[in-house]
Design goal:
9-stranded mixed β-sheet, single chain, 31 helices, about 850 residues, elongated
């Protein structure tokens, strides 16, 4: 059994690894480089690159990894002019749809514009390519492009996973760019606030001052401690100022031109005060900004502040990014509208403390959030964390949190501020990719990749833990029958039901995995350090699983008829690193097949003798395969005679020239050929060689009575294309179809009578007859024989041997001949060894005979001499 990993499975794991880099790499260029480098780590992807539009509007490479030496050839035409209309990257960028060419070497491109690109791709060794658009809320940002050295690498599942990754990358690029714009706008705003030549004051909806810059303090000649917390409506004696502030909070703006005596300068300064209300997203005034300026510079500074405020608001709304600020001295938390929306809060609802915020965070993520806030408060480096919050409707939302420390212009009043945005869709996509990469999609159990990883870990742990571990390989007996007769939907439900039983039967420390089809694996740890005790423990586990599997399966939708299914288990124990994971899997596989060989519905431990037997079997199989390849199979022909003793045909018998002079008979290697899958190739070779020999023997004037008998396997007969292959062979050899008789054993033919009859009808339509071989040894009935369009039956040599001394055999043969004659079938007797047998069988009604009494199997040269002999 092959336990190697399919290239598509490796590609899925590579995609999963690449997807992990998207949410955690803050810098855009490092994110793109890391993504490309991860995608080319697998052997199949030879080039990965991201195309983004340049300042001139041309789509160019922003990051690449792998065969970057051929990147220019794939993007630019040989004459140096851009071939963007021919490359998949621009086709995907313009259409916004995935462009896939899964067979660059043989297939025509999906778009005729891509044909010149395809020629250059072939020259660069590219066998498959895919280009995926990077979508954002405002359109396509660029493309993710992959080139593979393996054709047909991108299946439906792989394309879906890559599209999820490309969408996640597009959203990540958009979020990072919006966040960068937002942070840049905040920084610029703070810089303008602190360095402005104007006095600036911020106040809340009640008129209480919350912040002001150094110029404002200097103009008023006051200390920060005096002003912060003071109220512009209740604590100011100048009614003109009070009225202007009130107008800003009720009407949106209040203007005031006054001549103010500055305590700091001991002089009167002409000051224009402008008080402006700040509105939230709903248009409601929630705060105010006051400016103190001289008349000459007022317009310029106000315009810059307004422009920056609008840019900041637009960036926040477009990116759906929430802004928050934590005052480290007061312990108060300030949120904007998007922070409230992200947390599912409506209207004026707001969390005002870190404690309240923590209560909204899933308990497992609270430590991570607190650590990010504390790290940001203690360092000048930004910090980030991913956390889950609980919405008012009890649903989860995944948020990405970024935090950094700020101080005011005087280095006082420290605070932590940052942004927060929704990454739920990206997280779910990552989880889905991980699920597909590490778990079986049907049953939810671990898949081969995760199993092999845990098995390798278990082997390494044996250095520290000297207890035994057991690896159990399970194969469902009879699953194929249930799947074929009841349908694949029922078969899937049976696999799911068995996986559920397996999951509940194991301990928490055990690992259950599905390899594929009806094969499962259980990895058990923590067994005894004693080999004898560990063997007993593993045997108890296996016995429990055998009993569990044997219980009836009541599957919904299966007509409420229970299914029964047993399991064969192979077990191998290990407590050191002497065997690799692959070797342990092979040992468990050998033991499992031994349990099937000994009756199924049981378990067997791996033994070294099993390994030797398998290796011997494999060596014989390899030798037989090599013999077929080197044309060391030969044919011998056994003549057949009629009732007068005249040759009327011959049967082709295959021999294996194993050692150069020793010929092995079919019973020594045909079972091996069937188990190894070589039987069809051998059958085809025998048919072709026999037809060619017959044509050579009868080239001048083939006797009409002469026929050629060739044995075929039931697998070959039931192949729907077999009749066409036979006719092609007959025609190429120059034979008439009626000279050929195909022989099939009785036991094989009656496995599926309906399919067998259909196959026989296909051959009869071409004039090729079928002979039932080994007649009398099976359990066929007259009714079954009547359903098949046979020409003759061949009495098995076991009934012929010693028939002259056995009245019982005479009676059996007589009954068989009577049955054949009742159905108008000719009767052939094989294994005739003496005159007495010949005369007895002829008297009973046999029409054709073969056996060593007439002639032994002979090479074609001897047969040719006999046919050419006079008389």
């Amino acid at each position: 059994m092959d336990h190697t990993e399919h290239p598509r499975d490796r590609l899925k794991a590579t995609i999963a690894a690449a997807n992990q880099a998207i949410p955690f790499e803050p810098a855009e260029h490092r994110l793109l480089e890391a993504l490309c480098e991860t995608l080319v780590r697998g052997a199949e992807i030879v080039l990965a690159w991201v195309a983004l539009p340049s300042a001139s509007g041309r789509l160019e490479s922003a990051a690449a990894a792998g065969r970057t030496d051929c990147l220019d050839e794939l993007v630019l035409a040989p004459h140096g002019e851009p071939s963007l209309a021919q490359g998949p990257h621009l086709l995907a960028y313009r259409s916004g749809q995935t462009y896939l060419d899964n067979d660059v070497l043989d297939s025509a491109p999906a778009d005729p514009w891509a044909e010149p690109w395809q020629e250059r791709a072939r020259a660069s060794g590219v066998a498959a390519a895919i280009a995926l658009p990077l979508r954002s809320s405002e359109g396509v940002l660029g493309t993710l492009n992959l080139c593979a050295a393996v054709a047909d690498l991108f299946g439906q599942d792989e394309v879906l996973l890559l599209e999820v990754t490309a969408n996640a990358l597009g959203l990540a690029l958009e979020a990072r760019r919006n966040a960068a714009v937002l942070i840049e706008s905040q920084g610029r705003y703070r810089q303008i606030f602190e360095q402005s030549p104007l006095g600036i004051v911020h106040y809340d909806a009640d008129g209480t001052i919350v912040d002001c810059n150094a110029v404002y303090l200097r103009v008023l000649g006051a200390d920060r401690e005096q002003l912060i917390g003071a109220n512009l409506i209740h604590d100011i004696d100048d009614q003109r100022v009070v009225d202007a502030v009130r107008r800003s909070l009720t009407q949106g703006q209040g203007h005031l031109d006054i001549v103010y005596r500055s305590a700091a300068w001991n002089q009167f300064l002409p000051v224009r005060a402008v008080f402006t209300g700040v509105r939230d997203g709903s248009g409601r005034i929630v705060a105010g900004i006051g400016l103190l300026e001289d008349f000459t510079e007022r317009r310029e500074i106000a315009a810059r502040l307004h422009e920056n405020e609008q840019r900041l608001r637009l960036a926040v709304d477009a990116a759906r990014i929430g802004i928050w600020e934590l005052d480290l001295e007061q312990g108060t938390l300030h949120w904007d509208g998007w922070m409230r929306r992200l947390h599912g809060l409506n209207g004026d609802a707001m969390l005002t403390s870190v404690r309240e915020w923590r209560e909204r965070i899933v308990p497992d993520d609270r430590f991570r959030a607190t650590r990010a806030l504390l790290s940001a408060a203690r360092s000048d480096q930004p910090r980030s964390a991913r956390l889950r919050i609980v919405l008012p409707n009890d649903e989860y939302r995944y948020l990405q949190l970024h935090a950094c420390r700020f101080r005011d212009g005087n280095g006082q009043r420290p605070r932590v501020t940052g942004v927060c945005y929704d990454v739920t869709e990206q997280h779910l996509a990552s989880a889905r990719i991980e699920q597909l990469a590490l778990f079986d999609e049907l049953t939810g159990l671990s898949n081969r990749r995760l199993l092999m990883d845990r098995l390798s870990q278990a082997i390494r742990l044996t250095q520290r833990q000297h207890s035994y571990r057991a690896l159990l390989l399970l194969d469902l007996d009879g699953f194929k029958r249930a799947n074929d007769t009841r349908g694949h939907a029922v078969g899937d439900r049976l696999l799911i039901a068995f996986a559920d039983r397996l999951r509940h039967a194991l301990r928490r420390t055990d690992t259950a995995a599905r390899l594929g089809g009806d094969e499962f694996v259980v990895l058990c740890g923590g067994l005894s350090a004693s080999a004898e005790d560990a063997t007993q423990e593993a045997a108890r586990i296996a016995s429990k699983l055998v009993e569990m599997a044997a219980e009836p399966y009541w599957l919904s939708g299966a007509d409420e008829v229970p299914l029964y299914c047993s399991v064969s288990i192979g077990i191998t124990l290990f407590n050191d690193e002497s065997c690799s994971a692959d070797e342990l899997m092979k040992q468990a596989d050998i033991a499992m097949y031994e349990s099937k060989r000994t009756g199924r519905d049981t378990w067997r431990f791996f033994e070294t003798s099993m390994q030797r037997a398998i290796e011997q079997q494999e060596a014989k199989t390899q030798a037989l395969r090599q013999a077929l390849h080197e044309d060391r199979l030969v044919l011998r022909y056994l003549p057949q005679v009629d009732q007068e003793g005249q040759w009327c045909g011959y049967e082709a018998l295959v021999r294996w020239n194993a050692s150069g002079h020793e010929l092995r008979r079919p019973d020594e290697f045909l079972k091996l050929a069937e188990s190894s899958g070589l039987i069809q190739a051998i059958d085809d070779w025998v048919l072709q060689r026999a037809c060619r020999d017959f044509a050579d023997l009868t080239a001048h004037q083939p006797p009409s009575y002469l026929h050629l008998g060739v044995n075929v396997s039931i697998r070959q007969l039931l192949d729907t294309e077999f009749a066409e292959r036979v006719m092609q062979t007959v025609l190429e050899a120059g034979l008439q179809p009626h000279h050929l008789r195909l022989e099939v054993t009785e036991q094989a033919l009656f496995v599926d009578v309906e399919q067998a009859q259909a196959a026989i009808e296909r051959l009869l339509s071409h004039g090729i007859a079928i002979v039932l071989d080994d007649f009398g040894t099976g359990s066929s009935s007259l009714l079954q024989l009547q359903r098949l369009s046979l020409q003759a039956v061949k009495i098995d040599q076991g009934l012929v041997r010693g028939i002259e001394n056995s009245p019982t055999k005479v009676a059996i043969v007589r009954a068989a001949i009577s049955a054949a004659k009742a159905l108008s079938l000719a009767v052939i007797a094989e294994g005739v060894e003496n005159e007495e047998q010949f005369q007895l069988l002829r008297a009973e009604g046999c029409s054709v005979f073969q056996g060593y009494y007439f002639a032994e199997p002979m090479p074609v040269e001897a047969l040719s001499q006999h046919l050419s002999a006079p008389g």
